[in-house]
Amino acid sequence: SNNISVVVDNSILVDLFELNQLDLLFQVFDQVYIPQIIYMREVPQPIKNELTRFPFTIGILSTEVGQDTYAALLNDPAFKRLSMMDRMAIAIAKENLFYCNSNDLLVRKACEKYSVHIIGILGIVGRAYIQKLIDKDTLLFLLDELTSDHTTCYIDIKYIVAFKEDIFGLNS
Predict the structure, then answer these.
(1) Spatial CA neighbour of 7 closest among 48, 66, 47, 52
(2) Which of 13, 35, 44, 61 could cross-link 88 (Cys pair, CB 3.0–4.6 Å)?
(3) What percent helix, strand, coil does the chain show, rounded to 5?
(4) Burial class of residue 94 (count of CB atoms within 10 Å of its CB; 0-12, 13-18, 19+)
């Protein structure tokens, strides 16, 4: 779909900030929600300063669907290692029918189990490329940066290789 909204976690904000590409988040999604607890407790001040340039919504749980999802995640033994912030992001995404934006494997598994769409940093840069917001050279540069020591992002190289095969149809 071309029109999607997202609930973003701190790691994605940090990744995009380190890449100097925070604007991509706001270009590829219709609405960006940052859970209040993540914004207040995790987002570093330099990123908060940068975020003032963009329209986003501070997300809170506001429906029974969200509250029930949060409670289910809290009581599900498979997800006892999820942080309060991760649970909140998933629950807000579920109640609004938004994508949850995280690279965390446990978050991805919880989203799958609770029928929440998930998208990570590769999904953002991939959508930016498909929407012609960045060109192939920029995409390849960003992928290299994500696997370098220049960012705190950790993505196994096998995911980068598979992503390149998917988006370009070959090993680039």
Answers:
(1) 66
(2) 35
(3) 60, 10, 35
(4) buried
The string of pLDDT tens digits covering residues 56-114 is 999 999 999 999 999 999 999 999 999 999 999 999 999 999 999 998 999 999 999 99
Cα 56 from Cα 32, distance rounded (Å)? 5
Residues 6+ away with beta carbon under 8 Å from 22 = 13, 16, 47, 50, 51, 54
Residues ≥6 apart with Cβ < 8 Å to 105: none
Which of 84, 91, 90, 87 minimizes the C-alpha distance to 66?
Answer: 91
Distance in angstroms (rounded) separating the CA atoms of residues 28 and 124: 7
Res 33 pLDDT > 50: yes
CA dist 162 → 75, 86, 127, 157 (Å)? 34, 26, 16, 9
80 DSSP 8-state letter: T
146: exposed, middle or buried (Cβ count in 10 Å: 0-12, 13-18, 19+): buried
Whole-prediction pTM: 0.91
Residues 6+ apart with CB under 8 A from 59: 7, 33, 34, 35, 36, 88, 89, 92, 96
